[in-house]
Amino acid sequence: MIAIVLFGKPGAGKGTQAEFLKEKYNLTHISTGDVFRFNIKNETELGKKAQEFINKGELVPDAITIDMLKNEVANNMDKAGFLFDGFPRTIAQAEALDAFLQSINLEVTATVGLEANDDILVARILERGKTSGRADDQDETKIRTRYEEYNEKTAPLIEYYTNKNKYHAVNGIGSIQEITERLSTVIDRF
Ligand code: AMP
After folding, report:
1. 27 lies in which domain range?
2. Which atom of ligand 1 is nearest to the CA of 93?
3. CATH number assigned to the domain comprising residue 149
4. How confident is the model over 81-114, as pLDDT tens digits?
């Protein structure tokens, strides 16, 4: 099984690309943001814990997120591998992912980062906010908080995976199809 991590700032196109890649490579797509939103909508205990953080644009605490991710992986071992979208977002999450995958005889195969300029991304998120119904997409202060969280906590992961020779940058500007092809060129190497 392979385990691919899709990186990118909010608005970089992770979710859009994941929809294509999961079909192409028969992967279980795990979007931690989607799992949280599902739980909030269904008013589960997990949803109640996560909601206040998500609404402010802050990251949900590691312990909650890591437990949730492990459950998602353990319940979906029936495909050719995993496509993680929005996880890991902190060094602690990356370390927990490494240890957990090792415990089930897997490892992170590669991480691919969709790179794009911040101005383009903020404009995209505000546009998405008109239809996504996501409160965290509609308010510039919350969007700014999400970028601060990214720069402070998630950006260090680029170095973490680069040091393991597992980070691959991909130009995130272009048509959806062009970007899928760029990502596929990386994934096809494994
Ligand atoms: P996303 O849909 O990936 O943009 O995630 C939406 C929100 O869910 C984020 O702003 C965080 O509040 C929360 N979230 C998603 N994934 C994680 C994660 N790996 N760690 C902590 N919080 C997360």
Report:
1. 2-183
2. 19
3. 3.40.50.300
4. 999 999 999 999 999 999 999 999 999 999 999 9
